[in-house]
Design brief:
Order of helices and strands: EHEEEHHHEHEHEHEEHEEEHEHEHEHHH
CATH topology of the largest domain: Rossmann fold
Mean pLDDT: 92
Shape: globular
Number of strands: 15
CATH architecture of the largest domain: 3-Layer(aba) Sandwich
Helix content: 40-55%
Radius of gyration: 22 Å
Number of helices: 14
Largest sheet: 6 strands, parallel
CATH class of the largest domain: Alpha Beta
């Protein structure tokens, strides 16, 4: 059985997306795949069981039944207290889950936590897990000129023989030449580049349906267009004369503004933004709703103030999951074309 451990130095590098895309490709090849997330940090309840959102989703792709095993330790206040009081031994739980999940598998994929350091106080950092299970480590890093290279070289000293290579993720068009030039420096320092994945806006966006659910918003109109994706936010606090110009500069834009700012509502609708989120619990006029309905632009209403809502949206969009079905086929093809899965498996 081949074993792989995907982890990242920098949070929000898209490790889960790379794992999901890799798993989908392995399944297409007819491989029997096992999976385990070493440290869960997005707690959700599935069928009455506490698990991690990403690990639970991967389990659903694999058709695994006991979602509790997908990430034995999911960080909550209760779990923290139990570990601190010695009621739970995290590494033992991880090994127990692995032993139950790894039988009759061709490939077993480990996914790390938020970053390589998370879980260190519980003995579950990427370093701890790599040493305990003797795993080949593949870094997944959101590419940034020089910074990614510096971090990888620094971490290599700690991971030593376990670090087998790096996947450069979310590489923007303007940075591709730099990434290619730095490939030589990565490899000179003993860190093979196993993939260079371009930035794809869809994968860094979220559907209006997801946005509405996460905001616990009231839908005023446009629910038939909830499959539309948004990837940028603007707060409508400027003069209406300048608003249209700002709004037209952005693609897939959601505008956040007070429910009483009808001037901004009109400007946003005229600019054909993707969605409007109105704050403060103030519903718009019937004229605004009529224009939005005619233009097929969803309007959501929330009780929170504009600043709070904008911060929430920034988090929701900036850290969107890759679980939406529209993203999966794109993700699978992206990994297939840009990541050397065969070479990665060779390290296992």
């Amino acid at each position: 059985m081949k074993k792989i451990f995907f982890t990242s130095i920098r949070e929000y590098s898209g490790t889960s997306a790379v794992v999901i895309g890799t798993v989908l490709n392995l399944l297409d090849e007819g491989k029997r795949v096992g999976y385990l997330k070493t440290f869960g940090y997005i707690p959700i309840i599935v069928d009455g069981v506490l698990t991690d959102a990403d690990s639970g989703f991967v389990f659903s792709l694999l058709g695994e039944g006991n979602v509790l095993l997908s990430s034995p330790l999911v960080l909550t206040e209760d779990v923290y207290d139990e570990v601190m009081e010695g009621k739970r031994i995290p590494m033992d739980e991880l090994k127990g889950a692995y032993n139950r999940l790894s039988s009759n598998k061709d490939v077993f994929v480990f996914e790390g936590g938020f970053n390589i350091f998370q879980g260190a106080c519980f003995g579950l950092s990427a370093f701890d897990v790599a040493y305990e299970f003797n795993l080949p480590v593949i870094l997944v890093e959101r590419y940034s000129k020089l910074e990614t290279l510096d971090r990888a070289i620094f971490v290599k000293n700690g991971l030593s023989r376990f670090l087998k290579g790096i996947v450069l993720n979310m590489v923007r068009d303007e940075d591709r030449n730099y990434a290619e030039k730095e490939r030589v420096l990565f490899e000179k320092n003993g860190i093979p580049v196993l993939g260079t994945i371009p930035f794809v806006e869809l994968l860094s966006s979220c559907s209006i349906r997801t946005m509405s659910k996460e905001l616990n918003a009231r839908v005023l109109c446009g629910e038939d267009h909830f499959d539309r994706f948004v990837s940028s936010i603007l707060v409508g606090a400027m003069d209406p004369e300048n608003a249209i110009t700002f709004f037209k500069r952005k693609r897939n834009l959601v505008v956040v503004t007070g429910g009483d700012r009808s001037d901004i509502h009109i400007a946003a609708l005229e600019a054909n933004v993707s969605s409007l989120v109105l704050t403060g619990g103030f519903p718009p006029s019937s004229i605004i709703l009529s224009i939005a309905h005619e233009k097929n632009i969803p309007i959501l209403l929330v009780e929170e103030d504009t600043l709070t809502t904008a911060k929430k949206l920034d988090f929701i969009i900036g850290h969107s999951r890759t679980h939406e079905k529209e993203k999966l086929s794109v993700l699978k093809e992206l990994i297939k074309k840009n990541v050397d899965i065969a070479k990665i498996l060779g390290f296992g």
